[in-house]
Design the sequence.
């Protein structure tokens, strides 16, 4: 949310002028209700409606934004959401809930700090976190037009390499025939298939939906589509009774519940989710026989080898007896697992000691723009196959957000930095950035291509790199598919891998 501290601006009559995103705006001097917070929320075009906190111009939610001479707020190192007064900071570090929860987790048998962090080859030397953050903080307008054009060419070149290599893999392994025969998916256009995955599971497009129903049903439609992939691909069938399904980033557990409906309580489900969620699916009355075990943890700290002690876990969690472990298989599933959490989940499966037990995975990707190079377990693919350097990899990661740019961004009118009462140096800097933006926009115009197009290509590059990582780990069928319509979700790509 974009916020403006109104009492810091110059007043002029009943209204005042501020500079926001490079444009001049006129807003009221103060909140019409003197009892309420003096913080103007510019996106909503109104003042905050909460009452002022005692001895403050702002409400309890926004007083952390307030800059006073006698009061300074510090950010908690354990949770950046916590803003603490300086004189209370030391005490907060002792009682911070985030820290205490982590200390409790450390006592668990399955907890190993950073167990699933990617182990990079020694020849790929990465800078420290501080230097990496500086690379991630570089904005588009800070890049010269010449350098930007170079990065655009890098995306086009990398895409062509990925498309050709993946097309060859599909052809050599006769996977197009496998898709048509087993998944019952029609490939309407081969070029689209290799370009943007282009495989669509048939979903009833004639379904009449109100906006409310559409919102409520979109998750169930996605869960059904992913569940169909699990069963049609042969990873499971309705009679399977020897499978452990691990759902990464489980949330409420909707995908697990959908799989369980088709399998009728015959398998074990391990749900990994780091945040506390309400209305968990496994707690519903109709799911009494739902054999699931939930772990509240970050995936990076979970040792998957712990599930070898399944009988012990079941007894500890109070679950019913399930099945003999001798011939079990493990399947990884996920719906919309964000950014580097996908790569950490892959590392978790790779770190499982009994690799012959890993049967496959069905994992939908999303939020590629928050991937981190230090967590990629396939950095070698970018550097050796695509011949990219660190800056180019990070640019590709960040450019994935272009796919969801607003219309004005597609035309090249990117947002300017926030700023009020800009001094001369800042004005000159903004003018230079604006000039860079105009030249960058001209690059897109000359190519007659939009930012969205390059965002799509960047997402494809990242996901195909993941596919080749799975291929290198011994998965024989690796498919990059669209599992539902764009009208259901824009993040509709899934990676299906089978050993």
Sequence:
């Amino acid at each position: 949310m974009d916020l403006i501290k109104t009492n810091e601006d110059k007043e002029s009559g009943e209204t005042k002028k501020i500079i926001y995103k490079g444009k001049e705006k006129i807003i009221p001097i103060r909140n019409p209700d003197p009892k309420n917070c003096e913080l103007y929320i510019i996106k909503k075009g109104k003042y905050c409606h909460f009452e002022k906190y005692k001895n403050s111009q702002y409400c309890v939610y926004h007083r952390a934004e307030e800059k006073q001479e006698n009061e300074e707020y510090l950010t908690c190192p354990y949770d950046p959401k916590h803003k603490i007064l300086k004189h209370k900071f030391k005490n907060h570090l002792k009682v911070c809930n985030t820290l205490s929860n982590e200390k409790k987790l450390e006592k668990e048998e399955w907890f190993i700090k950073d167990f699933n962090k990617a182990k990079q080859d020694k020849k790929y030397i990465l800078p420290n976190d501080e230097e990496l953050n500086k690379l991630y903080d570089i904005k588009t307008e800070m890049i010269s037009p010449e350098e930007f054009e170079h990065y655009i060419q890098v995306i086009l070149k990398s895409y062509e390499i990925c498309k050709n290599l993946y097309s060859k893999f599909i052809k050599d392994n006769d996977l197009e025939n496998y898709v048509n025969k087993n998944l019952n998916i029609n490939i309407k256009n081969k070029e689209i298939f290799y370009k943007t995955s282009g495989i669509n599971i048939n979903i009833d497009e004639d379904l009449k939906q109100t906006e409310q129903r559409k919102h409520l049903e979109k998750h169930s439609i996605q869960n059904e589509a992913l569940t169909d992939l699990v069963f049609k691909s042969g990873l499971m069938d309705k009679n399977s009774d020897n499978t452990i399904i691990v759902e990464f980033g489980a949330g409420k557990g909707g995908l697990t519940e959908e799989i369980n409906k088709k399998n009728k309580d015959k398998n074990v489900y391990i749900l990994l989710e780091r945040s506390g969620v309400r209305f968990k699916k496994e707690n519903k009355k109709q799911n009494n026989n739902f054999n699931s075990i939930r772990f509240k943890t970050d995936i990076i700290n979970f040792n998957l080898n712990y599930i070898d002690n399944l009988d012990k876990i079941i007894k500890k969690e109070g679950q019913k007896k399930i099945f003999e472990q001798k011939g079990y298989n493990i399947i990884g599933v996920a719906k919309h697992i964000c950014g580097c959490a996908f790569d950490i989940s892959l590392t978790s499966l790779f770190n499982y000691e009994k690799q012959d037990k890993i049967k496959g995975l069905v994992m939908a990707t999303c939020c590629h723009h928050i991937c981190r190079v230090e967590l990629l377990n396939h950095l070698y693919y970018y550097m050796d196959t695509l011949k990219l350097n660190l800056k180019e990899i990070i640019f590709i990661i960040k450019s994935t957000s272009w796919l969801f740019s607003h219309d004005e961004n597609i035309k090249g009118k990117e947002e300017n930095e926030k700023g009020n009462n800009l001094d001369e140096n800042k004005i000159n800097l903004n003018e230079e950035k604006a000039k860079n933006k105009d030249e960058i926009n001209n690059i897109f115009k000359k190519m007659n291509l939009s930012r969205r197009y390059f965002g799509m290509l960047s997402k494809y590059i990242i996901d195909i790199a993941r596919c080749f990582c799975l291929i290198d780990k011994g998965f024989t069928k690796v498919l990059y598919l669209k599992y539902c319509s764009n009208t259901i979700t824009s993040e509709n790509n899934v990676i299906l891998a089978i050993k």
The CA atoms of residues 80 and 125 lie 28 Å apart. Residues 5-13, 186-209, 407-429 have pLDDT under 50 and may be disordered.
